[in-house]
Amino acid sequence: MAENKLVEVRRKQYSTLKGLLSNSSAPSGIFLYGSDESGKELLIREIIKELGLPHVTVNLVTNYEAKLVYQSIVGIIDRGQHRPIGNANDLVQALRFDTERREKAKGTNRVVLIEEAERLIGFAGNPMSLLLRLREYTKSPITVVFLSDLPPYHYRGLNPPPLVVALPPFTRPEVDAILTADAECYPGCSTEFFSQFVHLVLSVFYPVTRSLAELRFAVRCNYAAYRRPVESGELKETDVGRLWRRAESRLRQSVQQVYLRTGSEQSEPRNHTETRNHMVPQTQNRIEQQNHADSPHHTEPLASTTNRLSRTSVLDLPFYSKFLLIAAYLASHNPPKSDKRFFVKHHGKIRKSSSTQRSRHAVTSLTGPKAFPLDRMLAIFYHLVSELVPPQVSVLSQVATLESLKLLLPVGSDDVLDTPRYKCTVTLDCVRNVGKNVHIEVDRYLFDFIQPK
Predict the structure, then answer these.
(1) CB 442 within 8 A of CB 431
(2) Which residues, other chains included, contact 144 with Cβ-Cβ below 8 Å and sequence gap of 6+?
(3) For the whole model, what pTM was predicted?
(4) Minimal CA–CA distance to 12: which of 37, 39, 35, 36?
(5) Res. 82: pLDDT tops 70
């Protein structure tokens, strides 16, 4: 499996961490950092599993304040119990009492995993200093492992300084080896044939993205079309050149949609560890249409193919990001005065003639999206969600994600005192498909589609 191959690639860091955690005099803090897909969590969990160490995992997305972090850490001694922990002193006293009560605990190292440790930067009271001294304060063999995307110089209060272990980015041969290890997830596929396909995918996608998840997604989406001529008997597995010419146009087209995940997973491997994306009910028909378009007897202009894909695509976004994208589209294509009509219960009567409707529709189609302030988009978002957004959901970080994906474009100056303004870049068909995915009829909220009274 690719997981075992990833551990093999990280053999040096694996040996270092295993040697540290297997010793009862392990350091009080270990700072493990690397990019988002460097295998930090997988590596440390494999070591904990092999050594059989008691551990607790603290995710800072759900535990968004120091009190909740302390409450989660005390779970390392209170399995299944709910001991109230109000502050750092309660945590230290609970762990110290447990150490004195159980003499055997002195020789057994215990691990606290802090996921997304970079969120500690914004915590009040600097709990990171306490976590690094937890072994000293509690007289208990506890090692706190911080999993972070940021290097340690971004943090304050690293005293005593933790032992730093860096995971460098994967090289291209390492990525090739990890993806090739997925061959056993595809039944009826030889390792040599799958390795050739992975090499072709990397030749197209690797200059664009180094993300292991995106490269693996590209392999899953395009493998069925690449293997289809072999299954039909038209070509042999050794006809690499002819297979490449068949698949080249599809791969070149897929690379334009990288990170958006608008392609369909046409060949999802069996027993794969990743969760399958949710699809709308029409996805199966779309896959069949796309498979028909990939056949050698079917020809279609590139422009029409691109338009067809844009019409049938569903963006693979987090749940609340879909509502944000719909809110951004409405704010970008509706005049501000119309918000009262759509989102206020007693808005009064607003009339407009059919000529006004036609002229506004023509102007919107010609001029494109308009700039809108961030607070207007958030007001529409909270109306569309129509429920209390959980406090652990960072709405502003999801806005930044949409901006990084170029679904929102910032407009205006970089002055931090000004309210941020954006434009929505997606098409109406795309927003309609996203709306269907969250059961929102977008046309009901568009000013251009109001029936004249």
Answers:
(1) yes
(2) 28, 29, 30, 111, 112, 114, 131, 132, 134, 162
(3) 0.58
(4) 39
(5) no
